[in-house]
Amino acid sequence: MAEYVDGKKDEADYKRLHSFPLIRHTDMSEEMRVETMELCVTACEKFVSNNENAAKMIKESMDKKFGSSWHVVIGEGFGFEITHEVKNLLYMFFGGGLAVCVWKCS
Predict the structure, then answer these.
(1) Which residue, 82, 74, 80, 78, is CA-closest to 105?
(2) What radius of gyration, in Å, describes the C-alpha atoms of the chain?
(3) Which CATH architecture has domain 21-104?
(4) Which of 7, 22, 45, 74 is the most buried (most CB within 10 A)?
(5) β-pair partners for 45
(6) Tens of pLDDT along the chain (106 residues)?
């Protein structure tokens, strides 16, 4: 097995292991959960270095698909306490330490 220089092998292994979405909490229906999770992954991959644009993309898509008043927070190392509509919350991790919280509150 070839060794990578300066720990690049370890970094590649880490990225491969942590590139899948991990749902921490949700109360969404199965169909909505899958669509929202796929949307979050797409947005985070498209806007790797700009969480604000990723959040905007997710919010606008959710508003269009499931009605208005969706909210999105993307980042690392934050806490939250929110009020949300029942069956309209998704909290997940992607890419290791990047958290995404999507909820509806009208």
Answers:
(1) 82
(2) 15
(3) 2-Layer Sandwich (3.30)
(4) 74
(5) none
(6) 444 455 566 665 555 555 678 999 999 999 999 999 999 999 999 999 999 999 999 999 999 999 999 999 999 999 899 999 999 999 999 988 899 999 999 8
